Amino acid sequence: MSTVLQEHLYRYPFASRIDPGLIQLAACGGDAAAEIDGPFFTGRVMHPREVATMLLTLSTIVRTHFFDASPPQMDPIVTASRSLVRWEGFSGCCGAYARLDLDESAFETERRASGTTNVDFNPEMIAHLSRVGRSDEVRLSIDADAVTLARNQAAVTEKKVRLPRRWIKGLGEVQVYQSQLELKQRFTPALLLPLIQSAARMGGGNQYLSISAGRPRLTTRATSGAIPVGGASRLSALRTLLPLVREVSLYADENSGVHAWVGETDWSRFWLVLSPTLQRGFSGEGQLLDSLANDDWQERVDPILELLAGSETSQQGPAETIDPAELAVRLGCTTSEARNSLAALATNGLAGFDAGSGFYFQRQLPFAETLVTRDQPRLRAAHKLLEQRAVRLLPGDSAEEQAAEVTSNGTTYFVRLRSKGEKCTCPWFSRYQGERGPCKHILATRMTVEAKHHD
Fold this sequence. Notes:
Layout: H1 3-7, E1 17-19, E2 22-29, H2 31-34, E3 41-45, H3 48-62, E4 77-80, E5 84-90, E6 96-103, E7 107-112, E8 115-119, H4 123-130, E9 138-142, E10 146-151, H5 165-178, E11 182-187, H6 189-202, E12 208-212, E13 215-219, E14 227-228, E15 247-252, E16 259-264, E17 268-274, H7 289-292, H8 298-309, H9 324-331, H10 335-346, E18 351-354, E19 359-362, H11 370-374, H12 377-387, E20 391-393, E21 401-408, E22 411-418, E23 423-424, H13 427-432, H14 440-454
Antiparallel strand pairs: 1-2, 2-8, 2-10, 3-7, 3-9, 4-5, 4-8, 5-6, 6-17, 9-10, 11-15, 12-13, 12-14, 15-16, 16-17, 18-19, 20-21, 21-22, 22-23
């Protein structure tokens, strides 16, 4: 496989430019997109000012560092499918994930197929979007080499960018968290504005949301029934969307502390998914390790890629959504095994999760199997421990519990696998208590137990 695919370094065929009447953004696409002759999406934007505001909001998020000073990555990913045009991006600190889903009714569509690319949002483009008016004629075209946005008579030039590997890692991790989210509350925009103002005054510490007299309220104490919404000051990013949406929904996972806020219109959904605290990013969480610990997914990757490509599933092209249960039936495996295989695709950014529908969706990016473990150092370290025969299973194991000693760098750690929770005596586990995925010693013990059961 070429270095381009292995490194996910997408190179752009030209500098983005604007001619009278249209903006041509330099973009890069995956192999699937390259096979399509011409644009995989063209259409007229039916709500030009509203869509421009949403794209500006997304660009603001990807240019914002909520707690650190990492270099910004201003290149949102755009995916076209049979019913959606989806824009995605991460904040500079990777602790906020934004996604804009535009439905069929957001466009007067002329051509629609499937493909993924990513574009650069430089200051010139941002300034141009700021000038879009309600009565402007705005047209969107997406193909493997360019995204073209035509608006009256305007001109701006964009520069080449690369799709950051950090985003690919973040896309893999954030879909795990989203698959655990549950709908908690729905708010009118009028109710949410005071909440955003309150969050800004409280800063970036731990916060909890409760409902009092029908109104949302933030506190710094974990009262009964309160929902953890750490780093709620990041909600200020949604302020410009409130006049546009009919309601805002809150999804949350109380175990992880990840929470998502969704502004909805009749034709769009804007997702802002926030990490548990202001200081945590999504790119290095290790939530995929549980799914990748066993190697069974490797034999299912190619069949899944073929199914997603649509050659066997539909004459309409690549699959629109991915139901793990249905996928398991088609592959002859369990639903859990299907999810593990999707996790492998997610490490390359190919699979995302929509908490609103409960299904996975795909992005058409290149897949390199070597990247599955390359960006998972704990998984590589666990395999090394297996090679060194560093795991010694202790007697007295049962279906509910297994103990082991794992020797690493001259130190022996005690691991206990239990159905109600795993433990390890290593410093990593002591620090994070499993909140950021399993340590290498737990992973190695799991693999050893799995190998023993297969013998």
